[in-house]
Amino acid sequence: MVSQAPLVELTDRELLTAHINGDPQAFNVLVARHKDRLWSVALRTTGDPEEAADSVQDALISAFRRADQYRGDAAVTTWLHRIVVNASLDRMRRRKVRPTVALPDHNDDNGVEIQDPRDHMDERETMLEISAALAELPEDQRNAVVLVDVEGYSVEAAAAELGCPPGTVKSRCSRGRVKLAERLAHLRNQDPTDTVTSTRGGAHVDGE
Predict the structure, then answer these.
(1) Is 121 in contact with 79 (CB distance < 8 Å)?
(2) Which pTM does this prediction carry?
C-alpha cells in the first residue's frame, strides 16, 4: 500500500503506483522530477529542439496511458528513458523533415554573411540516418548504446540503469556499434569498434 506521505516525498515507484491507483497528481510529480533529464534525452536523440519537445510529449502520453505495463524490472527512470528514446526515434523515422531556410531579400545589402543552408541540410540528413540506424538496433543494444555513447554514462552507471551486469552492457554496446558502423559506413570510413557520441545536441559515429 502506498504511503500517505506527501507526493513529493514518495519514490518514483510509489508515485507510479499512486498514478495507477488513480491519484490525479502523482504522474505530474513524477514528470516534474525528471523532466529536465527526459528533455535532454530527447534532444540528444533527435538533435532538434522542436522534435525533442514533440517526442517528450508523445512519450509522456504513452507513459501515462501504459503505466500499468511497468513491471518493475528496471528503475522507473530507465522505463521513462526507454519510452522517450523510442518516441524520439519513431518521430525521426516518420518525419523526414528538412529545415526551412528563409531566403535573403535581394535588395538587402547589409554585408551580413548568410550561412549556406546546405550545411544545415547535410547535417540534418546525417542525423536522420543515424537516428534511423539506432532505431533498427535491437532494443537492448539501442538502450545500451544511447546511454553509454550518446548520453555519456559510464558502463557501471548504464548497468545500474538497465538492471544488468556491466559485462552485459559492454557486450550490447559492442554488438550495437558493429551494426551501426556497418549500417553507416557510407557516411565515413568506419572501424567496427567506433562509437556513437553526441555532438551539437545529436549523435554521430566517431572513432574511440
Answers:
(1) no
(2) 0.59
